[in-house]
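Data availability (excerpt). All sequences and predicted token strings are deposited with the supplementary files. A representative entry, Anti-FecI sigma factor FecR, is shown inline so that the format can be inspected without opening the archive.
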Amino acid sequence: MTQSARKSVDEMAAEWVARMDTGIWSNADDEQLGKWLREDEQHEGALVHAQALWTVIALDRSELQDEPRGSARRFDRRKFLLGTGGALAASVVGSLYLFNSDMGYATDVGETRRVALTDGSIAAINTDSKLDVKIVENERRIKIEKGEAWFQVTKDPQRPFIVEAGEVRVRAVGTAFSVRRRGDGAEILVSEGVVEAWAVGTRTKSVRLPAGSKIRIRNNGSVDGRSSEEQVIERALAWRSGKIDLAGTRVDAAIAEMNRYNRRQIVLGDPILAAERIDGVFQTNDPEGFARVIAGSFSRSVDIANSNEIRILPH
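Structure token line:
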């Protein structure tokens, strides 16, 4: 590959990583990224290297800028990534790549991230989540300490992709699915391919889940739900593009879902509304707008005087 072609690949990888980091992502983006990765096996490595350097810059940009933390000047990581080229990029990425097979990722409340794993898989990490990733010669293992993540798994029959969430295990080779850790187990949604899931000690009772499956496996091995419609799965995964998509959801459950993404919490001051239903697509970073829609739908008002909460008032 010529130097100019190499530069083009690196630039495209940087663009993809920058787009992942914005939190604004769609199904079309997933399809386009997958197509780009399949075009050339070198694209996968370029994406992983770009993600590695992006992460380093994020962790220690004050040193790279030679500016104090909290500086008001906006730092453009993409330009820095493209501008480093040569020695710095090679040394930073090269050293990081050696230990990138065993890494941890975390998101803050309201933050979502997409990261490229060293095997070429993509992980979209939801709000307030923590993952440990270990990729070795014979397996790829992800432990969800808390929260939720969606995985677009690169096919590799020699290295099964295993996700741990409490006592629940999910195994895949090449597919796309999400796992959300719950207090008593985990919720699993399969958007493409097939996965196998079970609870520790109940492997003989594992369930095989095709695309369209939406289930909850408890730590004791009991299973709720099996299949769903494709549109239901896509609604549940709307968080990947910074939204929540509700269809006939109870008001109390809808508020709990929105509260996952915001430190300023919505409080339902009228318990009569708890069992009412609501539909709509909402931005996860707009709790006030969400609360006003609920209040307006049932002729209620909203109190926003408290900076820590938004209260939906009774009549």
